[in-house]
Amino acid sequence: MSLFKTGGLKAGTSPGATPSARRTTSLVMAATAALSVIAGGALAVASPLASSAQAASAAAATPSGYELTMKDSDSRQWMIAPDGTQTKTNSALAAGTNPSVANIANGGFVTAFADSNRGLWQGDPFSAAPVTTAIGGFSLPANSSPAVDGDNNNGAFKMVFAANGKMNLVVGSGPNSVPDVIDDPAAPNTSPDITRVGAFGFWEAAWVDANRNVVYIGPDRIVHTVTDFKVQPGTNASIASSGDGFMIAAQADDSRLWLMAGSGLGNVVATKTGSAMNTGTSPSIANSQTGGYQVAFVASDGTLWVTGTQGGVVKSGHIPDGSPEIASSPVDHSWKVAFIGAGSNHLVTFDSASRTVDTGLTMAPHSTPGIAFVTPVVPPPPPTTPPTTPPATQQHSSYTIENCNHVAHSATGNQGLNIFVWVKDLAGGTFNKVSTLSGVPTDHPCGFGSTPARFTFNPIQGHSYVIQVTLDNALGQTACNTNSPTSCLQFVDSFVGNAGSAPRTQRIDV
After folding, report:
1. CA–CA distance from 173 to each of 159, 185, 211, 214 (Å)?
2. Could you tell me the pTM of the whole model?
3. Alpha-carbon distance 59 to 359, whole Å?
4. Which tens digits make up the pLDDT trace of 262-317?
């Protein structure tokens, strides 16, 4: 799942509140816990958070690394930061589900989960204390969880989940998000997965259908079916970006691991590997930063194995009590696997340097954690702070904005999200909204057959301008507003009009 494998083929959480209401999650802070480093390192100690203000301060100091989420023995969601800080939330997970976590821009992350009533929720990425939002009033089937993946370039993220006998894809933007409904139900007791394909900037989703075939959907909006094998009942397919395309992993009904390589459009090439898996477990696949992939799975002997294009098979010797999740780092090309340890039920990680860390946190039996690599957090400025304008050193004869978003279709309008273009002449003018660009009506990113909405601004010779794009009429928003997640500043630039200079085109993909 994901460009950098944002863990969680499954998910679950939230309180038993009415799914349509917003709430702020109250935190139950964990006592300071020691992380016993079993191999390759010194003892590390996690620092508890004491308040929302301290939480914000801690977030600002969070280093790059792996963010973890899990369900404990009381069905509560925990978040474990890259520095080891452990936070117990007030979110209650549905039985048979697990939380999912994804990296997004600016060091943020977002979670997706099913609450105790199987309602769909998302975790807000940039709040000092975790804020969750009910999405659309959906009811997920039993033992099925949503998956989420993000874009570490622009902060967008997308969820996939089963509901009402169909598959649904939705851009996470609040309680009024409208899903793109795919009339292809999932197999019972399974969960879908989703990835952002980095080279082209589109999403691919995969799941196991009612006939136990692996199916996937991408920018062509066609459900493709892999008919080479049947998936073992109750197990999930996992998908991740791989080079310029994607890779899917699944366990067949003969317990063999299968890999399916795709390029974004058309059919995949399915390959049966020689690896035998433990019955009833699902593999997890992550993008390798060298252009390939890494797969974590429980082998037929019950131990954790990792294999892929980075060379060889790593046999960890660990015995998980459930399916593992793997994520990879764009910084140092490392990977890390999170899993529940057999016997202790502790959340344990194992990485590419053969280091094992037992967090000491007790997970729900047979559950699966989520894991994602996040970059350093840079908290956004307050909404009243104007955006920083780059110096007007660029010179352009014209400036074109293209709306390349491929947001989920609405049921009636079949149209993506609008963007608004604003221009200010620094010779004394104010910002004026010069264009409203409708969302692309085909769910294709630019370059895949769609014709994006365009606006071209022709400057006055020698005048300096600031041009910016927002997702609604709230000019000058510097970050997603908690109460109005679509109030986002997407782009800001400055330039000088010069008829002798080259034109500029800026594509906006939200």
Report:
1. 10, 24, 32, 28
2. 0.65
3. 20
4. 876 667 899 999 999 999 999 999 988 667 899 999 999 999 999 998 878 999 99
